[in-house]
Each structure stands twice: as structure tokens, then as C-alpha cells.
Write a structure and sequence with these properties.
This protein is an alpha+beta fold and 213 residues long.
Length: 213
Amino acid sequence: MDVVGSPESTEEPATNVKFQTLLSLPGCSSPLSLLGTGYREKVFAIIGVKVYAAGLYTNQSILSGLDAWKGQSSQVIQEDSSLFNTIFQARLEKALQIVLVRDLDGKTFWDALDDAISPRIKSPTPVDESALSTFRSIFQGRPLKKGTFIFLTWLDPTKMLISVSSGGLPSAVDATIGSMNVTSALFDVFFGRDPVSPSLKAAVSSGLATMLK
């Protein structure tokens, strides 16, 4: 059994979901390292309900491009949008793992994500609309059970892979998104100035500060 804080896994404390510290994913050239974990909460009738846990993984080579932030505190890193923009722009893999902590209808999941993505795309092009349609089709009419893994993997700033698995790590890619407006909007949803999971961005910032000492 994995132990919290062991080299093999890290536990997200609010949801008790365990994340592997190193992952090999379909479409990625090398294993990805966990930077931090957090959770997404929605408020229903003034009660906060946890919907999923999430963790950000990156190709370890990304850190070599962040020398300008060496020695910075986690708070400085969290508030410096240029650092997260540098991570996004790096032509190296990054993956967001989402683990549902309750049963959810696929349409509900997509609608919540779309509500966050769409306002960030001011003038969608036909390429953007096609990408959003592909994204939507993965989740429409699909029941997402507690424990389902959703991986959003940025291969580079213009291309993202989507994998959904209810039985552990995915073995295949469900869809490929080829719109930089959509891929950048999605990254901004989680790591921009108004993230949907403040706990995730804070944990990733703390992880980066530790690695860049």
C-alpha cells in the first residue's frame, strides 16, 4: 500500500486522493513529475461540495527554463503570471490529472468547464469552435463515476490530448485538441489570475519554490 508522502505517491489532504509522483501517459515522450495537488469545490445552497481532486505534472526539463525564479517564495511564484505563462509556452509535456470524488454526469462536468473556458476566448475562430465541439463530445452523455481519471495533457502550446479512464491510468487517447486559444484558455482556468482551484495553484507554486531553491 502506498504511504502518504512516499516516493511513489502523494495524498491530496482535503479529498484523500493519492497521486503518483511520477507518471507515464499515452502520447508523452517521457515520464512526468508531480508538482502539486488541490481540489475543486462547488457551492450548492451555501454548502461547499468537493467535486474532484487535481494534480499538475510536468516534464522535468521544464524546470531548467525557470532559472529566473530561483530562490523566489511560493507566494511570489503564485502571483507571478509570467512564470506560469513560461511553463505553458514550453514545448514540453504538461498534464492535469483530475480524479472525481463523486459521481457526476458528463454534461454537468463539461458545462462547468465550458463556463470557465468560453469567457477566456474573446473571438472564437472556426478552429476554436471545432476544438470545443470535440472536447464536448468526449463528455456529453457519459456518466462519470467516482474515481474516474481525466487527463488533460498539453504536448505543446497548440496541442492537447484528452484521456478518460474509469479503471486506473489510461492506455489510450480519447481526443486531440488543436486550438491554441482553447489549450491556453484551459491552462488559464487552472493557473491564471482567477483559478477554479486556488488550492491547486497554491500547491503547485509551493512545489515550484521547493524545486527552484
